[in-house]
């Protein structure tokens, strides 16, 4: 480098140090001047220093809300270093990471993901970057974590924030911990875990040393958490503290300095005062926030949309519905890049134009509800039709957002937070259908019923289908290895620091791999967002003449019921006494889920009452049907319909009349991977069949008790039978899952508080456990049926919009199309009887639902029934999933053997004839 250039570089470094010193003193305008001087010296002579200064200057632009200018600075920086083969990775990383952050602010999510992905890949290729610029890397993960929870990707957010906190501790960056804790609080708040959010906010508050804008934000965050806990007076106290501090910070500053923070605080204060019905005070704060945003920031952005949402809620509280509607529509416009045609209160934008899909969904949902309220008040069909259109738009948008969420846990939380949307949409659409019956609205209702339950499972089924089609095998193998390692590390103690560090690293690698799938494999991305919903007509073609599909969605005092047969589609609204309905559910579940110790059954009245609500209204549609496929509402997902009683005679259970299978949705039930029945033998796992195998275990773990009937059950079933010590977890994992049936005659434990801790036990019971995450990672698409004869494999935590997070659900998630499961603790003797009879009928080629029904009917006629004449002993065995036969068709197999025999005889005759002809020719030649 020429001497003059070296001098310029040295002087530039001196100017940059001066700028950083001024920045640390809070003298931002002066800092910018010195950064500009430093850049001017090297912009034509030293591309690496110029690129580095582009990052510095872009940070100053971003701080002043000049985000577009900040983005252009970083793109200029990339142009400086892209031609260089030896440019430092640290500079390239800073440019990539900064662009990710700026594109978030510009609501360019795809661009943000692209640059964050490149920065993450660079970190993986060159881990030394972390030590070189630890603070940059910390903020890189922190910024991603903060963004992902706003997108509903909560698990991914927690992984990135955990990495950020890990770096703060590792490199002694203790001042940053408070900021990370605040973001963790924001994530838990978005997840609806408000107490956890408050704990992180209070912890962050202890770390704040300066009275700066971060402390101000955390004080308001504490207030928001207290608002979420309905501790309104305490919340207002913290909001007041935050407002006093922000007033101090803004003294002597420009009008626009910290204005966004001030507006955000006023929005929260308006929420809180509205909650305590101080509407004039609420109006004061929200009016200030609205006016200043329009005046100084503009008419676009998520913050404005949130302000306008609060304004709409305030109008509704004042009974001003038309003004509320205008406010919600303005909120929609605020988060759309193209607002053409959105001046009309009832128009909805294209989802592709949204800058913030989550806020758009919230605004559109409020708008749909407000339109429905206007219809209820005025009975004008224009309001109803607009409400229906907007609800359907919201459901599509909800599904679009869901595609970007990459873990089951986050999917479940998202469903829980959004659980009311689909029932509300069904109620509005049904109202319109009553006024204007027609094919279009009926199909719309069918599609809404399909969206009502277990959305996270639908997403899993979709990905399990498209991944093998679009992603190379080695990549999928790497994913499986990562998931398996993550599952192993989750079982370690939280005090195991090394395991926690490795867990975070593996989770980040997995998220990065998922991003690689999305960005590098266009077919995967396209199919992930493709609408492949089953139509009602396609469902009718799947149903035979004897079958009916029934789906239930409950909303308040209405039970909506969809009934599909091969000849008709009906939707009805059954009015219910909500309190009485709930009481019947609770009382019946108490009768069913607790061991009566051979006591009397007292659930008949409750079972008859639920039959009257759920089955009686559709009895006409079910006439002549002998099998039902039922999709239950999440609120009574635990209810076995088999025990419902007609009331026409004693013990007239529904299972006596029809075979029953349960579905998450019609598509998940019927649109399963087409597989021929496996010709491999069934697999039976019976780890606790013999007392002598448990001598060392029983003393330490009371749950691993001998299942006396399980050996006879296993021997009766036959196939590949693993008993006692042979029935251990390694043996199970090493065997082929390409089986018609896998039987588990074992123990299981369900953890309602944390479904991840639920497990199926193998020998010896203390260490060999197959946990929920382990089951998720299995590949069971080649298995025909899993029979979980263990206790409570169908019970678990109930989540709104999803149903029961059970072990059975985990088997379905892993690709198993059919699962026979237990809803409560299994009785060894009766479970063994039912399992043996079930297998007998499966071997005869019977469908799974009919085989299970017939096994029950056999039980009712058996000598042991009088002893166990209580649904507790027989009703917990239910079928979740497809009912097709799972055993090889004996007739087909025989036909194959006959065909082979005929072919063999034909070949033998042909060979003998050919031999005879050759012999005759030889004799003629001799003659």
What does this entry look like structurally?
The protein is built from 38 helices and 16 strands. The chain is of the alpha/beta class. The strands form 4 sheets. It has a 6-stranded mixed β-sheet with strand order 7-6-8-12-15-16, sandwiched between helices. The protein has a 5-stranded mixed β-sheet with strand order 3-2-1-4-5. A 3-stranded antiparallel β-sheet has the order 9-10-11. α13 runs antiparallel to α14, α23 runs antiparallel to α26 and α36 packs across α37. The chain is globular. The chain starts with a helix and ends with a helix. About 3% of the residues have low confidence.
Topology:
Layout (H helix, E strand, L loop, with lengths): L2 H22 L3 H15 L4 H17 L3 H15 L7 H17 L3 H17 L2 H5 L1 H17 L3 H17 L6 H15 L2 H14 L5 H16 L3 H19 L8 H17 L3 H19 L4 H16 L3 H14 L22 H22 L2 H23 L4 H10 L3 H15 L3 H13 L3 H16 L2 H18 L6 H24 L1 H7 L7 H7 L4 E9 L2 E7 L4 E7 L2 H16 L10 H11 L12 E5 L27 E4 L3 H5 L12 E4 L8 H4 L11 H8 L2 E4 L5 H6 L6 E4 L3 E2 L9 E3 L7 E3 H5 L8 E4 L8 E3 L3 E3 L1 H7 L4 E5 L5 H16 L4 H14 L15 E5 L8 H37 L1
Parallel strand pairs: 1-4, 4-5, 6-7, 6-8, 8-12, 12-15
Antiparallel strand pairs: 1-2, 2-3, 9-10, 10-11, 13-14, 15-16
Helix pairs in contact: 1-2, 2-3, 3-4, 3-5, 4-5, 5-6, 5-8, 6-25, 8-9, 8-10, 9-10, 9-25, 10-11, 10-12, 11-12, 12-13, 12-14, 13-14, 14-15, 14-16, 15-16, 16-17, 16-18, 17-18, 18-19, 19-21, 20-23, 21-22, 23-26, 24-25, 28-29, 32-36, 36-37
């Amino acid at each position: 480098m020429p001497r003059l250039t070296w001098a310029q570089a040295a002087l530039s470094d001196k100017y940059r140090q001066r700028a950083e010193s001024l920045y640390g003193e809070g003298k931002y305008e002066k800092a910018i001047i010195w950064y500009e001087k430093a850049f001017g010296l090297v912009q034509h002579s030293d591309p690496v220093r110029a690129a580095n200064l582009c990052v510095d200057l872009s940070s100053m632009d971003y701080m002043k809300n000049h985000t577009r200018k900040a983005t252009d600075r970083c793109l200029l920086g990339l142009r400086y270093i892209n031609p260089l083969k030896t440019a430092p990775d640290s500079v390239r990383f800073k440019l990539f990471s900064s662009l990710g952050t700026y594109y978030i602010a510009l609501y360019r999510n795809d661009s943000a993901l692209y640059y964050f992905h490149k920065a993450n890949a660079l970190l993986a290729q060159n881990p030394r970057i972390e030590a070189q610029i630890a603070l940059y890397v910390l903020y890189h993960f922190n910024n991603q974590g903060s963004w992902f929870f706003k997108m509903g990707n909560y698990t991914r957010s927690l992984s990135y924030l955990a990495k950020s906190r890990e770096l703060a501790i590792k490199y002694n960056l203790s001042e940053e911990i408070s900021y990370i804790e605040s973001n963790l609080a924001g994530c838990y708040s978005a997840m609806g875990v408000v107490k956890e959010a408050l704990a992180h906010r209070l912890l962050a508050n202890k770390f704040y040393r300066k009275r700066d804008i971060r402390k101000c934000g955390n004080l308001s965050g504490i207030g928001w958490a207290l608002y979420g806990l309905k501790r309104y007076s305490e919340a207002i106290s913290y909001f007041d503290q935050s407002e006093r501090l922000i007033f101090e910070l803004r003294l002597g500053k420009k009008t626009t300095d910290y204005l966004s923070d001030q507006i955000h605080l006023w929005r929260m204060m308006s929420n809180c005062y509205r909650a305590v019905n101080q509407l004039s005070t609420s109006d004061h704060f929200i009016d200030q926030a609205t006016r200043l945003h329009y005046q100084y920031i503009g008419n676009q952005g998520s913050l404005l949309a949130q302000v306008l949402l609060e304004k709409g809620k305030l109008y509704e509280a004042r009974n001003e519905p038309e003004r509320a509607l205008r406010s919600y529509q303005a909120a929609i416009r605020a988060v759309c890049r193209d607002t053409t045609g959105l001046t009309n209160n009832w128009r909805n934008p294209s989802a592709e134009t949204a800058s913030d899909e989550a806020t758009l969904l919230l605004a559109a949902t409020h708008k749909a509800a407000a339109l429905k309220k206007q219809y209820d008040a005025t009975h004008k069909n224009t309001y109803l039709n607009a409400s229906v259109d907007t609800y359907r738009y919201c459901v599509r948008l909800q599904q679009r957002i869901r595609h970007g969420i990459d873990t089951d846990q986050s999917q479940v939380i998202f469903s829980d937070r959004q659980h009311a949307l689909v029932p509300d949409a069904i109620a509005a659409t049904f109202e319109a259908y009553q006024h204007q019956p027609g094919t279009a609205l009926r199909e719309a209702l069918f599609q809404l019923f399909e969206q009502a339950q277990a959305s996270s499972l639908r997403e899993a089924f979709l990905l399990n289908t498209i991944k093998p089609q679009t992603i190379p095998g080695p990549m999928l193998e790497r994913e499986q290895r990562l998931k398996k390692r993550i599952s192993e590390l989750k079982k370690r103690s939280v005090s195991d620091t090394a395991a926690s560090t490795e867990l975070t690293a593996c989770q980040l690698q997995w998220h990065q791999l998922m991003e690689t799938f999305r960005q590098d494999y266009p077919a995967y991305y396209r199919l992930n967002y493709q609408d492949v919903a089953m139509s009602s007509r396609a469902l009718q073609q799947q149903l035979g003449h004897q079958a009916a599909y029934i789906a239930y969605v409950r909303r308040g005092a209405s039970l909506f019921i969809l009934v599909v047969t091969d000849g008709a589609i009906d939707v009805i609204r059954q009015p219910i006494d909500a309190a009485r309905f709930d009481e019947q559910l609770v009382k019946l579940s108490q009768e069913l889920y607790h061991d009566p110790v051979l006591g009397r059954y007292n659930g008949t009245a409750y079972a008859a009452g639920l039959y009257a609500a759920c089955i009686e209204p559709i009895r006409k549609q079910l006439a002549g049907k002998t099998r039902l496929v039922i999709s239950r509402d999440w609120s009574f997902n635990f209810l076995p319909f088999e025990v419902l009683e007609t009331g026409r005679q004693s013990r007239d259970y529904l299972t006596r009349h029809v075979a029953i299978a349960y579905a998450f949705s019609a598509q998940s039930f019927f649109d399963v991977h087409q597989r021929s029945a496996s010709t491999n033998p069934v697999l039976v796992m019976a780890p606790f069949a013999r007392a002598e195998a448990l001598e060392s275990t029983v003393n330490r773990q009371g749950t691993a008790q001998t299942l006396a009937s399980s050996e006879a059950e296993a021997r009766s079933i036959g196939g590949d039978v693993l008993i006692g010590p042979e029935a251990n977890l390694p043996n199970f994992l090493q065997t082929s899952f390409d089986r018609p049936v896998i039987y588990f005659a074992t123990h299981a434990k369900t953890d309602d508080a944390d479904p991840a801790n639920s497990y199926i036990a193998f020998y010896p019971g203390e260490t060999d456990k197959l946990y929920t995450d382990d089951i998720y990672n299995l590949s069971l698409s080649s298995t025909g049926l899993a029979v979980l004869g263990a206790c409570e494999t169908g019970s678990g935590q109930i989540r709104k919009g999803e149903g029961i997070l059970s072990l059975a659900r985990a088997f379905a998630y892993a690709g198993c199309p059919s699962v026979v499961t237990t809803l409560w603790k299994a009785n060894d003797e009766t479970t063994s009887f039912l399992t043996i009879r079930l297998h007998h009928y499966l071997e005869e080629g019977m469908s799974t639902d009919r085989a299970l029904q017939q096994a029950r009917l056999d039980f009712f006629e058996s000598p042991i029934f009088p002893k166990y004449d209580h649904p507790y002993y027989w009703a917990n065995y239910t079928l979740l999933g497809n009912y097709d036969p799972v055993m090889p068709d004996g007739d087909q197999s025989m036909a194959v053997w006959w065909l082979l025999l005929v072919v063999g005889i034909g070949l033998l005759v042909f060979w003998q004839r050919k031999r005879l002809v050759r012999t005759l020719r030889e004799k003629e030649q001799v003659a």
